[in-house]
Every structure is written in structure tokens, then in C-alpha cells.
Amino acid sequence: MEPIKDLYLPExxxxxxxxxxxxxxSWDLTERQVCDVELLLNGGFAPLTGFLGKADYASxxxxxxxxxxxxxPMPITLDVSEExxxxxxxxxxxxxxxxxxxxxxxxxxxxxxxxxxxxxxxxVFGTNDQSHPSVHYLHNVAGSHYLxxxxxxxxxxxxxxxxxHRNTPAELRALFAKWGWYKVIGFHTxxxxxxxxRDIILNAAKKVQANxxxxxxxxxxxxxxxxxxxxxxxxxxxxxxxxDQTSFLSLSxxxxxxxxxxxxxxxxLVHRNFGCTHFLVGADHGAPRPADxxxxxxxxxxxxxxxxxxxxxxxxxxxxTERLVYSEQRAQYLPQNEMPQGETGQDIAFSELRRRLQEGxxxxxxxxxxxxxELLRRKYxxxxxxxxxxxxxxxxxxxxxxxxxxxxxxxxxxxxxxxTLLDGDVVRKNxxxxxxxxxxxxxxxxxxxxxxxxxxxxxxxIAICAPIAPYTATRRKVRDLIEPLGTFVEVHVSTPIEVCExxxxxxxxxxxxxxxxxxxxxxxxxxxxxxxxxxxxxTVKISPDEAAHQALLRLESxxxxx
Length: 562
Ligand code: PPS
Prior knowledge:
The chain is an alpha/beta fold. It folds into 3 domains: 11-153, Sulfate adenylyltransferase, CATH 3.10.400.10; 163-325, Rossmann fold; 383-557, P-loop containing nucleotide triphosphate hydrolases (Rossmann fold). 39% of the residues lie in helices and 16% in strands. The protein is built from 20 helices and 18 strands. It has helices at residues 11-21, 31-41, 54-63, 82-87, 117-125, 133-140, 169-179, 195-208, 228-239, 261-273, 302-314, 350-359, 370-379, 400-414, 424-430, 439-458, 472-482, 497-503, 508-513, 544-557, and strands at residues 26-28, 50-51, 78-80, 93-97, 103-113, 145-153, 184-189, 211-216, 247-249, 278-281, 317-320, 324-327, 332-335, 388-393, 419-423, 462-466, 487-493, 535-537. Strands 1, 2, 3, 4, 5 and 6 form a 6-stranded mixed sheet that branches. A 5-stranded parallel sheet has the order 9-8-7-10-11, with helices on both faces. Strands 15-16-14-17-18 form a 5-stranded parallel sheet, with helices on both faces. The chain is globular. 3'-phosphate-adenosine-5'-phosphate sulfate (PPS) is lined by residues 396-397, 401, 424-425, 428, 437, 442, 445-446, 467-470, 506, 508, 517, 519-521, 525. 3'-phosphate-adenosine-5'-phosphate sulfate binds next to α15 and α16.
């Protein structure tokens, strides 16, 4: 095995680089770029020596090769804003810093270019459809321009979590040499290991007589994946099922791209760099989960075919494995095509697992050791134990505060979760006192309210919000903020403007009509009605108490209370 080259400056030159960086312009690395830089610097992405320049980028996108013909399937690029690219000159050195401002590396900019993102998506991901999470990222999150050039490493990105389980390629290679592990099979994963994965790993290790390196990706994985803190607890539990004489766990800061077959080739090269001699590739390696009812993004076993074609160039042996399913008759996992006649094998897909966790349903022992399911149940309690946000929206005077308060009291009466009411007026007074009612300020106000609601939801509480929140796009943003953390229930209090104006409890409509208040919602500022809220309440027809009861019933039907 050739020694691995990292891109760090010699110790003696780091302080000079620190001093040099003070006079340089800085680029604050995004979460994904921090992951990429770490693996570039420590040699995980060897033979890359920095972010791809224009010629290498074009060649990687089109042919999975660097411009000199070396196999490399993934464009590792430094995306920046148009503005930053415009200020940058070819030949300039830029300081790359993490979010705290720590200097990670110097980039000697050789190329500044604007990619054709649709083409990149088609070639790398096989689609320009934004339902693919990385295509969505490419078009909506990544900057418009790329900077290419060599890196000079100063400091590895800091990790406060699981430091004892993180290793560089050089460290892992040294450990394998010390332990006499001359054959090591790498296993990449972004999910907890259950019984099927345990059998897949053990079968493959036996087949090639190798030790096992479990390398869970903890950089960025697919949105909706189980967080790596929970996964680490699950891995530790599973490791007790795998002997530590034969297996080793090391976390990978890889930011996955979920590019299916290309992803598998990329992972194989990275595992080679980390000292593995073999790499295990399953049926749908590195693919995003298809949405409910949608076709998978990549054909099953497409990765196996591509890897077989590239085998002579990989520098690591590929061990492929079929999908395993559980046979009740045999009381064991079998490859799908070896199932006894007349028996359909069983499996529990990730979405089904999520549903069972969410609804507190049974998960059988054949699927997983029970202690792993217990860990997941603790971290992902059923809906009626999770946090959620009820977001009332409606005109001033529509009655949303009254209904929201009645709902708060009813939920507090139940007493199982803390309840917080974030009423429009209260938020304006405490969080947004300096804001006006301009569109920009209203948006800022609602995003602040959404941030607080998201924190409450994340920590298992109930947030009841009751602002006007007149704009659809802003309400959507709050929903997007909260939904990864818990349920978001939008309640439109649809009391018509004539009724609100007639009530005019605060006398504001009269003032707005008289022109004393400008930009009043419903008078001379728009209110965009929610198209499909979880619940619509018209307070003309029912009392606040009845309205709160309707909301309670809706929460019950969503499984949020019982
Ligand atoms: S927004 O649009 O969501 O930021 O509004 P919100 O924070 O809920 O604040 C609404 C309360 O502010 C008072 N108020 C106004 N409302 C609408 N437009 C204008 N120009 C305005 N100026 C002051 C009004 O009392 C609202 O309270 P509610 O409880 O909704 O009647």
C-alpha cells in the first residue's frame, strides 16, 4: 500500500501561515465544505490536492476522471457567492475558516468559474430533478461560482463529539499495521445497524477472511436520517454483537452526495485511502430514499455494475452483497433469491421503521436487538410524546389570541408537556420591539417567533403561536424550520375582515381607515390566506371554547395528543 500524503503544512510553517492569513481575505466554509476540507487535508480524498479547477471539474463531471485520466468520480468544489467570486483574483491566496473563524487552510486560487449546474446534476446524479436532495442542494444552497486551487492545511476542523472515534487515514493505517490487520473490509453506513446489516458484514468478512472497519458517515447525510448521536449509541450496542477482536468503529466526516453508483466508486476510493483492502457494497449503495410511491433514483445493483467495470483501477477489492430478507421458516436472513419456495422474505424499510417508532408499534426481534430499538424509541418517541407547534394565523381581531389561549389552557390541563403561548402582541413586545410593520420587518418578526417555536418543539414542548403572519412564503419557511423537529399544525382563523373591523376591539381598523395607521393588514396591506392549513376556524360561527375544542380534536386526529 502506498503511503498516504496529507496536505498539512509542516509544523514550523503553520505560524507563518497564521500570520500571512491576517492580511488575506477569508471565506467562511459552509458545513459541507468543512467536511470536504477535512478529507482533502488528511488525505481521505487523495489524490486530490485541493478543490477542483475548471479542467479537472469538467473531466470529473463528464468522465469520472481528473484531467490527467486518474479515476475520481465526485466533483469536490468550493462553491462561493457571485459577489465573493467577483472580488477574487486568479493567483490570490484566500484564508479558509470554519464558522468560528478558525483558520483551517490557505487556498491558492488557480481558477474561478461558473458551473453549468443543470449539466452537473444530470451527469453526476443522473437527474436534474430537485426531489434528489443533492440536486436540490446544488441549485438552492450551493453558491453560483466555484474556486479551484491547491490547499495548504493549517489546522484540522475541530470536533467536540466522539473525538476518540475519529481517525485520519494515516492513523487508521498505523493501527491496522500495529494489530496485524493485513486484510480489512470497510463498511460505510448512514443508518443504525440492525440484524440484516450485521449478517451482511459478518458474511462478507468471513468470505474474504478480513477484519471489519465500520465507517459511519457523520458529516452530512440525507435530511431525515437518524442523527449521529443516536446512531453512535446504536453502533456501540451492535458492536457487542460483533467481536472487537475483529471489528473497529471509526467515524467518517464525509458529506455524502447520495449519487448512487458514482457515490459507491467514491466511497471505495476513500476507504482505500483509509487503509482498507476490501469494500462492501450493498444493493442500493449511496442512494437517496425514494419519496413515498416514487421510483428509486438508481436501478438496484447499478453500483455493482459500475464498480465491476472500474475494478482494475480502484486499488481496493469490492465485495458485493445482495439484499437480505428474513425467512420465518428458517429463522434467519437469506439473500432474496434463496428464499424457500412459497415464502416471501420479510424486511422493514426505513419509512416503515419511522412509522412504527412514531406510532409506538411493535418492531420484531428478528429485525433488531431489542436494546437498539429501545434506544431509538427513547430518541424518537411516538407522536403523542413529541413536541409540536400550533401556528394560528389570521387578521387582527379575528379571535386567534383568544382561541390560542383557550387551547393553551386545555393543553395545560392535560399536563403531559410544557405549553408556551407566543402571542403576536407578546412577541412584538419582547422579541421584536424595534420592528415596524414593513414586509421585511414582519418577515423578521415571524422568523424570530418561528425560531423560538422550533426550539420549544425540538425539546419536546408545545408551542402555540398566534401572530397575523400575513405572507404564505414566510409561513412556509417556519413550517420548514419546524417539521424536521416535530409536527407543525397551521390553523387559519378565517373570520372575515368585515367582522374583524366591526369588532375593532383596539380601535385600529378605525385608525387605519382614517389613514392614521399605514400598511394595516386587510386594509392597505395584504393578507394571503393559507391554501391548505391543517384546520380552518371561523369564529363567527363558533365560540372560542368550541374553536379550541376543534383544534384539540385535530391534534388528536394527528396523533399528537390522546
Ligand atoms: S405580523 O404581521 O405577523 O408581524 O403582525 P403581528 O406581530 O402579529 O402583530 C400584529 C398586532 O400588531 C398590531 N398592529 C398591526 N397589525 C397589522 N398591521 C399593522 N400595520 C399594525 N400595526 C399595529 C395589531 O394590534 C396586531 O394585533 P392583533 O392581536 O393581531 O390584533
